[in-house]
Design a protein that fits this description.
By secondary structure, the chain is of the alpha/beta class. The chain has 17 helices and eleven strands.
């Protein structure tokens, strides 16, 4: 039977879909197979267990469909979406983001707090280490600000480190930003970003989750949510990542989805740069400035020109390659140490460099 596309707005069908969505191990493939087999979620819920078993559905899932917990959760979600600024998008309904619908396993339902229209605007994902170094955080901020000013919505995972820096920088320049959660919207994670999340909503951004509103931040949720970050975006920029970073999962999903993958190189001596170097070996575009990203996408996105970048100070060029001591900077730049120290002081006052434990770091942007 074909899916009934006219019924999702009906309250009874909406409740039934929300109940199916809460059942254990019910992703899009199982969700879609139930609708195709029975014609609607309402019919699926009232069908005999034997019909479900014939579709290969586990008995535990069949038993759960009529539980009070499943019903109450669905009713709570219906009440949630009645409030201003809170939305539910269905993969076969209006408003579902077109790019996300193209991936192999788009989420059947998306809960959105904020502006759902933002999900269909040109997006660039910025991801990276949760324990990012100060230079990497500065780089993420600089790229996020410039990309937001160039017309991109900045999408990330609201995690600590690079994600949070990218979201905040987009807000600083009045840009749009989307946070994709690995938990339900009522179980925001990490809690340290509660104020950031609210600022994103208040500024016209959005928070998105495929998980039921009260779903906790289980470890297995985060690799799955990464396909949404990449699926919503035209490309993914990895700022800093070790070989074990979840950001590499996002980047590889992006490549599988036909999205652009960008990586910022770092020092060969720095473990946190090895993930980006591996991505570059795998075919990611090595980027050193925002213009390279915009040039690779402008042809069909009609984005406005980027802000012209100022020439890089010679000492900054050395520091962008790797953190250095004052003595090393004098050696590599072939300048007297006193002159180097004077220039570093000026750059520090301008907010372009910082000194941590005797080494100088470039502050991008």
């Amino acid at each position: 039977m074909s899916i009934n596309h006219s019924s999702p707005c009906h309250p009874a069908e909406l409740e039934a879909r929300l109940r199916l969505h809460r059942l254990p191990e019910t992703g899009l493939r199982r969700f879609r197979s139930l609708l195709e087999a029975f014609g609607s979620a309402s019919s699926a819920l009232s069908a005999p267990g034997s019909a479900w078993r014939s579709l290969g559905i586990p008995q535990a899932t069949i038993d759960a469909r009529r539980s009070a917990e499943i019903r109450d959760g669905a009713l709570a979600a219906m009440a949630w979406i009645e409030r201003p600024g809170q939305h539910l998008l269905m993969w076969d309904g209006p408003g579902y983001p077109a790019l996300l619908a193209e991936i192999d396993d788009p989420p059947p339902l998306l809960f959105v707090a904020g502006d759902p229209a933002l999900l269909d605007r040109p997006q660039l994902a910025i991801v990276g280490s949760r324990r990012a170094t100060p230079p990497a955080l500065d780089t993420a901020r600089a790229f996020s600000r410039c990309l937001a000013q160039a017309g991109f919505t900045i999408t990330s995972g609201l995690a600590l480190g690079i994600d949070g820096a990218a979201h905040r920088a987009a807000l600083e320049v009045g840009g749009g930003t989307i946070g994709v959660l690995g938990s339900g919207l009522q179980k925001l994670y990490p809690q340290r970003h509660r104020e950031l999340a609210q600022a994103m909503i208040d500024s016209g951004g959005a928070l998105v989750s495929e998980y039921p509103l009260d779903a906790g931040p289980l470890p297995g949720n985060f690799p799955r949510r990464n396909r949404i970050i990449s699926g919503l975006s035209l490309g993914v920029l990895v700022v800093e990542a070790s070989l074990a970073s979840g950001s590499l999962i996002t980047a590889r999903l992006a490549a599988e989805q036909g999205r652009e993958v960008y990586a910022i190189p770092g020092s060969i001596h720095h473990t946190a740069a090895k993930g980006c170097h591996q991505l570059i070996r795998d075919g990611a575009l090595l980027v050193e400035n925002v213009q390279q990203i915009i040039d690779s996408l402008r042809g069909w996105q009609h984005l406005p020109p980027a802000v012209v970048e100022k020439p890089v100070h010679p000492l900054l060029a050395l520091l962008h390659a790797a953190p250095q001591t004052s003595e090393n900077l004098a050696h590599f730049s072939d300048r007297p140490l006193a002159e180097v120290l004077a220039q570093l002081t000026e750059l520090e006052l301008e907010g372009r460099v910082s000194n941590v434990a005797g080494r100088w770091f470039a502050r991008a942007g």
